[in-house]
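Hypothesis: this fold can be encoded by more than one sequence.
Test: take the structure tokens below, design a sequence, compare later.
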């Protein structure tokens, strides 16, 4: 299960607007390995499901906190947007990638986060997440360290359904 205080601190930095009033994320539910949070920002509301990486490689390096998130804004600014958040700056090349079974997705980076480029690929990923048992994510740090993570998908379907109810 996610350490709620750690995730709340991480998401404050990531989901914070460039001004205005924002509350801390509030945990609303946990479904096996996934937790659901909501956060009010100005006149909008962000809802997201999150899971912490259950395995981090190589073991000899400090990865910081590593989470996979799927966020939806009540206003419709974004809907079911998957992202990877790490405790370090991610290099752009090679692109981070996700594998679920034999399916693969490449991501683009922004500092310590990685995202899927197109909405169609995001939806393909979300469908695979709902069917899969775990997700394998690989990235390279700006220092050149190749990293890999395993994120459990146990509970993701219920968590994504709850996000939709909260912000849909």
């Amino acid at each position: 299960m996610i350490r709620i205080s750690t995730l709340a601190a991480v998401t404050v930095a990531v989901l914070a607007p460039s001004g205005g009033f924002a509350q801390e994320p509030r945990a609303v539910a946990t479904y096996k390995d996934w937790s659901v949070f909501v956060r009010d920002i100005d006149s909008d509301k962000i809802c997201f499901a999150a899971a912490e990486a259950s395995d981090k490689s190589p073991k000899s390096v400090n990865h910081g906190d590593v989470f996979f998130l799927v966020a939806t804004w009540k206003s419709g600014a974004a809907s079911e947007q998957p992202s990877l958040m790490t405790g370090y700056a991610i290099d752009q090349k090679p692109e981070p990638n996700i594998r679920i079974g034999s399916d693969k997705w490449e991501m683009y980076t922004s500092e310590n986060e990685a995202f899927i480029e197109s909405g169609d690929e995001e939806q393909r990923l979300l469908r695979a997440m709902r069917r899969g048992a775990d997700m394998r994510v690989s990235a390279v740090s700006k220092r050149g360290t190749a990293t890999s993570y395993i994120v459990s998908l146990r509970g993701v379907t219920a968590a994504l359904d709850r996000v939709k109810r909260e912000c849909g």
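Confidence is low (pLDDT under 50) at residues 1-15. The helical segments are 4-15, 119-131, 156-167.
Hypothesis status: open.
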